[in-house]
């Protein structure tokens, strides 16, 4: 019989349940889409039904265990999208799930233009992506719902609450609320007053790796035995992906998924007067995570692959685009100039006119990948300005590093080795395994390097980066 864990991972797009051994072998993984419901009272707003999500989780656990066979479950843990929350009423019943992609606070962003105190305390500027702005929107437009709320927590911590009956808020997730003093690692009464959120709504802060409690008797219907199983607090998915990469302080990691955080682990709080970065608590005690972010990246690649190459496998597409030596097309499709908090309202492709005679469909996909790589390079340079990256390598994890084109472009543009370790594509799940092992005093898994992508000393790709940057800066001025 193998020993292992149930790891629940609730991302922006889908919900995953994995059964993983203590050595990091994934025995089973099953996925469902997260069902978002449009909220018409706000612009670009949506929510999810926590009760429906809990049924999905139970179903996926049962399915995964049935596929796995004979395994001793040592613990359960969860991770989830940052900035997402679940609202709870005075009976302990979940009222509403609000994901990171909900924008119900958008029309009140201008109320917080004088944001220096907010940034200095919370390590981020006030935008609708963060929980406090979402709550501010409810306070202004949904008084009935507002009056029902007695507490809230992150999505990953809510899973633990449903299984143990104990309510907590983990530090890396609390960093995403705009209500948390990141440097001191406590809730900020001042920020609660700024956003009108009662501090009584905020659960106790705990470290990742805390045993939240044992799974309640009436929640064990999906477990293989009636044994006592602890629920171990996980954390935010980006921090768990970094944890799964098993890096050291001062290392830098590119987490390539729907968006691409560029993060460096540091041991002191960094307060940037120009507000060019975010800073959060890491899941390791006494560590901070310095972050810039390339914005929407992998999502563009996934969607355009379906349009241009619906009948091709990922490897077939990679083989085609790896033959391209230079871009014939430039693209800007939603990547982010993070230090200026400058999103794109337009996007598209640009090429020489008339159309090049040897243009191929794969040139468009290459342009999308180059857009991702160029934006990562820009935001990496910003992060390096704030905290110099002295090492000659950086790590890559997440689904974006499945291929060979993106990591090689990054090595060439940044001028550093890109190291991709085993388990990179399920890094947040691997992070959950590492945290459970540490909590239960089980020897940690060791990942070998899969590939090292070295910069090509003869490449001329940076001249295209300069063209991309100029195009990206001017595209918002184009009238559509």
CATH C-level class of the largest domain: Alpha Beta
Number of helices: 14
Which word captures the global form? globular
- Binned strand content: 25-35%
Number of E strands:
24
Using only C-alpha atoms, the radius of gyration works out to 22 Å
Mind describing the biggest β-sheet?
Answer: 7 strands, mixed
Low-confidence stretches: none
Give the strand order of the largest sheet, numbering strands 1, 2, ... along the chain. 18-19-17-16-22-23-24
Q: Would you identify the CATH H-level superfamily of the largest domain? A: ATPase, nucleotide binding domain
Q: Helical residue percent? A: 25-40%
**Distance, first to last CA:** 61 Å
CATH topology of the largest domain: Nucleotidyltransferase, domain 5
Topology:
Elements: E1 2-10, E2 14-21, E3 26-33, E4 37-38, E5 46-47, H1 50-68, E6 71-80, E7 85-88, E8 94-98, H2 116-122, H3 131-141, H4 143-148, E9 151-154, H5 155-164, E10 168-170, H6 171-174, E11 180-181, E12 186-187, H7 189-195, E13 204-206, E14 211-214, E15 230-236, H8 237-245, E16 252-255, E17 259-266, E18 278-281, E19 288-296, H9 298-308, H10 314-321, E20 329-332, E21 348-351, H11 361-386, E22 393-397, H12 405-414, E23 417-421, H13 427-439, E24 449-453, H14 462-474
Parallel strand pairs: 1-6, 6-15, 10-13, 16-22, 22-23
Antiparallel strand pairs: 1-2, 2-3, 4-5, 7-8, 7-9, 11-12, 14-15, 16-17, 17-19, 18-19, 20-21, 23-24
Helix pairs in contact: 8-13, 9-11, 11-12
């Amino acid at each position: 019989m193998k020993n292992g864990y149930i790891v629940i991972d609730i991302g922006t797009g889908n919900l995953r349940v994995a059964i993983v051994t203590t050595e990091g072998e994934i025995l089973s993984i099953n996925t469902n889409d997260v069902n978002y419901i449009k909220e018409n009272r706000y612009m670009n707003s949506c929510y999810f039904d926590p009760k429906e999500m809990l049924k999905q989780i139970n179903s996926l656990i049962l399915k995964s265990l049935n596929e796995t066979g004979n395994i001793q479950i040592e613990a359960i843990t969860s991770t989830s999208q940052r900035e997402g929350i679940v609202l709870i009423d005075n009976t302990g019943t979940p009222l509403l799930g609000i994901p990171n992609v909900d924008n119900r606070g958008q029309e009140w962003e201008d109320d917080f233009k004088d944001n220096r105190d907010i940034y200095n305390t919370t390590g981020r500027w006030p935008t609708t992506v963060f929980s406090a702005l979402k709550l501010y929107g409810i306070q202004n437009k949904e008084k009935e719902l507002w009056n029902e709320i007695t507490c809230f927590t992150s999505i990953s911590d809510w899973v633990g609450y449903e299984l143990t009956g104990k309510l907590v808020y983990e530090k890396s997730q609390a960093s995403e609320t705009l209500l948390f003093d990141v440097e001191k690692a406590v809730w900020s009464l001042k920020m609660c007053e700024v956003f009108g959120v009662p501090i009584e709504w905020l659960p106790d802060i705990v470290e990742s790796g805390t045993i939240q409690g044992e799974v309640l008797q009436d929640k064990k219907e999906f477990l293989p035995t009636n044994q006592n199983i602890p629920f171990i607090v996980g954390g935010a998915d980006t921090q768990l992906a970094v944890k799964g990469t098993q890096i050291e302080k001062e290392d830098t990691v590119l987490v390539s998924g729907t968006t691409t955080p560029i993060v460096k682990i540091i041991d002191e709080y960094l307060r940037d007067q120009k507000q060019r970065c975010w800073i959060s608590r890491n899941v390791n005690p006494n560590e901070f995570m310095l972050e810039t972010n390339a914005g929407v990246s992998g999502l563009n690649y996934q969607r355009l692959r379906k349009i241009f190459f619906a009948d091709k496998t990922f490897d077939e597409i990679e083989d085609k685009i790896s033959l391209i030596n230079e871009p014939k097309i430039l693209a800007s499709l939603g990547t982010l100039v993070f230090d200026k908090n400058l999103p794109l309202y337009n996007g598209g492709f640009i090429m020489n006119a008339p159309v090049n005679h040897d243009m191929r469909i794969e040139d468009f996909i290459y342009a999308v990948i180059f857009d991702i790589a160029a934006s990562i390079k820009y935001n990496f340079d910003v992060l390096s300005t704030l905290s110099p990256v002295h090492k000659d390598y950086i790590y890559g994890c997440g689904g974006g590093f499945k291929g060979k084109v993106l990591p090689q472009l990054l090595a060439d543009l940044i001028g550093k080795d890109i190291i991709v370790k085993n388990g990179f594509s399920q890094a947040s799940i691997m992070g959950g395994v590492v945290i459970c092992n540490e909590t239960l005093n089980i020897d940690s898994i060791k990942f070998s390097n899969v590939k090292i992508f070295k910069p090509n000393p003869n490449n001329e790709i940076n001249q295209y980066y300069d063209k991309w940057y100029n195009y990206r800066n001017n595209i918002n001025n184009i009238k559509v």
